[in-house]
């Protein structure tokens, strides 16, 4: 592994999937996330796996997770693998697509969203 790969991550360096994430890989997964928002607040993190900025924001966000209460369900969407679902999220929740992006859903509606360095746990907590 080269010096730059150690710093920025090599092509073979896949993001480690943390156990608190629920993956969105289908329209059914998205429907489930929206349905869950009627019971708990839901946050969807849209991540571009090829983007250094997105990778950095994801790591920073994950480092804050311990500050989050248990009444939130966290969902993860790989934008590159599931772009049509990302487009559906933007359309269904009336939120302009960004990457990386955090969308907070309550009672089936987006109540907050942030992108890039504005993403933090503070967008989720009431």
UniProtKB/TrEMBL annotation:
Superkingdom as given in the UniProt entry? Bacteria
Which organism does this sequence originate in?
Chryseobacterium paridis
* Pfam families registered for this protein in UniProt: BrxC
Q: Which gene encodes it?
A: ytxJ
Matches recorded under Gene3D superfamilies: Glutaredoxin
InterPro entries in UniProt: BrxC
- Identify this protein by name: Bacillithiol system redox-active protein YtxJ
